[in-house]
Every structure is written in C-alpha cells, then in structure tokens.
C-alpha cells in the first residue's frame, strides 16, 4: 500500500487508517497534539509494518471532521473509533467494508493527544495507552503556551483547522473538562505509560511526575528532548520502550 485510507466514523469523525501488513487484530489509535497538522503517514506505515492496524482520527471540529472542537471531550472521539473497529467501517474511496474481530486496542498520544489517550484508557477495551509529553492537568499553564494565548494562536495560525466556541475552549481552564488529573481515581495504573523530557517548556515534566506518582503508573523521564511528538516513535530507542510496555501482559 502506497497511501493511507480514509473512513468516516459516527458520521462526523474522519480518520486515516492503514491495515496491518500481516493478518492481525492488534490496533493502534494515534492521537496528535493541538494545534498541529495531521500528517503522520510515515509513522502509520512504520506501525503497520510492526503488525498493527493504525488509525489517525481528526478530533471533532478539527480539520476534515465535522462538529465543534471541544464541545465534547476529545477522548470520546477515540472511544467512537474503538466502537467502529468491530462494528465495521468503510474505505471512503471504494466503499470496501472492514471489520476487526476481537480487536486488541492500544493508544498512543502526544501533548493534547496524551490527555485523550489517558482518559480513553478508562474504556475496558483499551489494553495500553502511551502518552508522550502529555497534558495531565490543564490548570497548570506554562509561560510558553498559556491557555488564552493558545486559543488566539490556534485561530489565527490554523484558521478553520480548529473550529471552536470560546466558551468551549474556556472549559479547559476550569479543571473539570478533559483533564486527566481529576479522573485519576478511575484510571488503571497498569494501562498507562508516560514519557516526558525534563527540558520540556510546552508542558512541564513536573505535571507528569506528580500525575504518575498519584496514579502509580509507569513513567520514563529523559534529561533532554523538549516537547515530544509521536514521530519520535520511529526512533529505535522510543519504539523499544513502547513495544516492551505493550507486550507486558500485566493489566
């Protein structure tokens, strides 16, 4: 296969996908940061070569997907994708229908997407979730990207790539919406693995440290690396860490 396929889920969510290169029921759902351009084909083909079906959804209200961004918690978009895996989804180009029987679901997200995969891991169908430089508490703002500045930047720099009401955006600041730290009592520590760099100025590593200590989940802290994107997974040292975690049967 030379290009990614596309499907529409719940009539609103557009997702790129690639079948596994070999027969498999293992699935990875990728959740990107925000704001960012959703271009991860190299990573998707890499993960497909490792024996996974790979999905890259656009959050509701972003890019090609319909709806309003942040009207609903974005982790619900991830759960909607999981719903479609076994019920069936179509390749929009030729109408071919796919179904994955008894899918083993793994989640990988970075930054904003880290929040999404942590929260979506509450779903019993999720085996493991890896979060790179995740936002675990939206109430902790950084000097580089404070919440109000980020809203203005997103609208001016990404235009209709993200379509949101200011009232929905402001829900991030109250701490009760799309915020992993307030859901920590409902999370399974054995499902979640965090990788963060100490020199990250976009999302402070201290927030991940405090979150991991409170939950008791696995965390790897690197001295340098800045704000990690999912593209780091192509690096052998990153994929080795993630693959080892995925293969650990403890849940």
Structure write-up:
This protein has 251 residues and is an alpha/beta fold. It has one domain (5-243): Alpha/Beta hydrolase fold, catalytic domain (Rossmann fold), CATH 3.40.50. Helices cover 28% and strands 20% of the residues. The chain contains 7 helices and 10 strands. The protein has helices at residues 41-49, 75-87, 112-120, 147-158, 166-169, 205-215, 236-247, and strands at residues 5-9, 13-18, 26-31, 53-57, 89-90, 97-98, 104-110, 126-132, 192-197, 218-222. The strands form 2 sheets. The protein has an 8-stranded mixed sheet, sandwiched between helices. Strands 5-6 form a two-stranded antiparallel sheet. Helix 2 packs across helix 3 (112-120). It is globular, with a radius of gyration of 17 Å. The relative contact order is 0.15. The model has no long low-confidence stretch (mean pLDDT 94).
């Amino acid at each position: 296969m030379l290009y990614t396929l596309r499907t529409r889920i719940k009539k609103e969510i557009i997702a790129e996908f690639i079948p596994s290169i070999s027969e498999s029921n293992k699935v990875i759902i990728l959740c990107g940061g925000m704001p960012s351009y959703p271009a991860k084909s190299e990573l998707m083909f890499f993960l497909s070569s490792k024996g996974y079906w790979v999905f890259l959804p656009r959050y509701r209200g972003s890019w090609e997907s319909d709806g309003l961004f942040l009207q609903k918690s974005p982790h619900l978009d991830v759960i909607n994708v999981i719903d479609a895996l076994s019920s069936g989804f179509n390749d929009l180009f030729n109408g071919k229908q796919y179904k994955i029987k008894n899918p083993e679901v793994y989640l990988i997200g970075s930054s904003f997407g880290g929040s999404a995969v942590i929260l979506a891991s509450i779903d019993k169908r999720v085996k493991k979730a890896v979060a790179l430089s995740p936002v675990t508490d939206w109430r902790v703002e950084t000097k580089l990207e404070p919440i109000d500045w980020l809203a203005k930047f997103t609208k001016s720099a990404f235009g209709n790539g993200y379509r949101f009401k200011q009232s929905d955006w402001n829900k991030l600041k109250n701490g009760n919406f799309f915020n992993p730290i307030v859901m920590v009592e409902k999370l399974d520590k054995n499902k979640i693995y965090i990788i963060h760099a100490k020199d990250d100025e976009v999302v402070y590593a201290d927030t991940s440290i405090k979150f991991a200590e409170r939950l008791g989940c696995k965390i790897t802290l690197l001295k340098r690396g800045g704000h990690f994107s999912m593209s780091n997974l192509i690096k052998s040292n990153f994929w080795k860490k993630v693959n080892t975690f995925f293969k650990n049967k403890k849940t």
